[in-house]
Amino acid sequence: MYVSTSTSPFLFVPVRHHSPACAHLIQRLFAERRPSRVLIEGPSDFNDRLDELLLPHRLPIAIYSFVHTETERSGAYYPFCEYSPEWQAIQLAGAAKIPFSFIDLPWGALDRSHTNEIAPERYADGALRRSTLITTLCKKLGVEDFDALWDTLFEIEPDPSPEALLARLTDFCTALRTADEDTDAVSASDLAREVFMRTCLAEAQALWRDGDGPILVVTGGYHTAALLPPHPPPGGGDRMNPIPYCPPVGRGLGGSSNLALTPYSYARLDSLTGYASGMPSPGFYHALWHGQKPLPLAVGALRKKKQPVSTADLITAEAMAQGLAALRGHARVWRTDLLDGARSALVKDSFEGEVHPLMAALFEAFRGGERGKLAAGTRLPPLTLEIQEALRNEALTPDVVEKHVHLSLLDTQERQKSQLLHQLVGLRIPGLTRVAGTDFAAREDLSQPKETWKLLWSPDFDGACIEAALYGATIPEAAVARLTERAE
What we know:
alpha/beta, three-stranded antiparallel beta sheet, single chain, about 500 residues, 18 helices
């Protein structure tokens, strides 16, 4: 266990992003070790807005960092849910009124030439998943993939001691990182980020005094291994640190980002729907985090979808899951046990498609339907504020009750409303749908051009208005940029 000493004040906690076990570990260490400062993997250019993270948001939410210049348009997400270890560290530090800050390179300062994604997730565990040791460890423990391996090693055990769990996490992540270093598989981007992180650690250590609590360092496990002592000082030239020294934010970083908090959802967090770092089935872990049993919740969701699940079926599924957990040596019934038990007990007919409808509904139930909402007082991008004001002024704001708007395009004011709606549709703002009107391509009824729009609020509306800021600061600017991107 790496704890503070007279020469090293750091308490390093390697985590998997969105891991409940790691989030519980942060809570335990915070209570037992009482840190004096907290350093967290996250965009360091957000450090002057940390107060926004302490507002009463409904999770999940994300920090959205984006760059738009004449030559580039890109963005990235840093998502948080209730059981994200980074979120727990932020909230605990805020409640204790101790300093906390992010220590990762901003998105705008990174080499982004390696990705074609408009908005990748920055809390990614792809490096851990790709380690050359994963296949060997999966075979050794008799599990199918990285997620099952992680659950077996860290999530299933009900109440490990903080010391034992921290030691296991450190050994596991260090072994994976060492294997990649031996094959030179560590990316230049990761190395650059770690140089910057070590600089931030050195600055924090300079402020630490004997008698202070430890400096808690919460980073992805793949990076922690490169930060553990002994590590080279910033600007060193060995194999672990071949990249020139990069000064901290605000001192000639050479790149900048725009930043905003945005609502997120469990559908976007689910690794089964493509999120590179998410835990599979976040609704399952959410239920456990809140002390609930996932299977009864899932069965309730199945019944709402008209999938027939009787009490007898539920008893049988639970019995099957318990038997599988015992056979697999699990200390408690787990996600894979529940899914396999449900498949055996509930799927009673043959099905030739890829996924049986009942199992598809069960996967959706385990995904969870939580959607984030930003608290009042959150700073929003200029484009978002302009969209809100423009829709409000034109009485076009979507509501939960469907509304139809009929526009005559010969009327100047109504034509302006049409232009606004088309611009926002081009920016992929949901809830605005043209359902009827003159077919200009067929040149029909041009004497009385008209349109009918359906306005209906979508859960993705607020997030889309924030994320559209990637394209510009005003509606016309953003609409032109989005149209040009589509044309190219």
